[in-house]
Amino acid sequence: MTKNELRVDYKKRRDLLNSTIIEEKSIQIANKVLLLPIWQFSFFHIFLPIQKQKEIDTSPLLSLLQGKDKHVVVPKMKNNQDLTHYLLLDNTIFKTNKWGIPEPQDGIPVDEEKLDVVFIPLLAYDIKGNRVGYGKGFYDCFLSKCKPGVLKVGLSFYEPEQFIDDVDATDIPLDYCITPEAIYKF
C-alpha cells in the first residue's frame, strides 16, 4: 500500500478506538519501553498526543521517564517544516496549537544534537522500520538534524505492514517500534 492509502486506513482504525482502549494500550506500550536497552541515556524527546487523532497517550511514558530522572524534551512547531525543542520543567506552560498539539510556550531550548532517544508518532510502519506519519515531513526534517546514532523509537497501537510502496530517500527509518504486544527492532 502507498503512504496515502495507509494514512486513510489507519485513521479509520483509530476512529474505532475509545478512550478506555487508548488508555490501556498506552500503558502497555509504556511498560514495553521498560524492556528497551535505552536507560543509560539522558536526553529523551517525546511527543505529546493529538487527542482528536486518537494518538497514543504518552503521559504514562512521560511519568516513567521523569521517575527515572531523565531529561525530557518536548517539541514545538516553529514554521511549516521545523520543530524547536524545549526541556520539560515542572513550570512548563502548554498551549494547544491549531492542529491540536500541546506545545510548550517557552523554556530552555535543547539542540537536536543533545538528544539520545526520540519517541516518534506514526500512523503505520513496515517490517523494515519505514514509518508513515501525517505527511508534512516534520519528523524526517527533525531527525535529519539529530546526531548519528540517536535511537528512533516509534509507538504504535498496531503491528507492522509488510511493505510501504512509496518510501522516499529522505524518509528516516525507525530503530524500534513498540506496540502493546511486541517490540520490533529494525
From TrEMBL:
InterPro entries: FTHF_cligase, FTHF_cligase-like_sf, NagB/RpiA_transferase-like. This is 5-formyltetrahydrofolate cyclo-ligase. Keywords: ATP-binding, Ligase, Magnesium, Metal-binding, Nucleotide-binding. PANTHER family: 5-FORMYLTETRAHYDROFOLATE CYCLO-LIGASE, ATPASE INHIBITOR/5-FORMYLTETRAHYDROFOLATE CYCLO-LIGASE. GO terms for molecular function: 5-formyltetrahydrofolate cyclo-ligase activity; ATP binding; metal ion binding. Pfam families: 5-FTHF_cyc-lig. Substrate binds at L48, E55. It comes from Croceivirga radicis. ATP binds at K3, N4, E5, L6, R7, R131, V132, G133, Y134, G135, K136, G137, F138, Y139. Its cofactor is Mg(2+). One of its GO terms (biological process) is folic acid-containing compound biosynthetic process. Its EC number is 6.3.3.2.
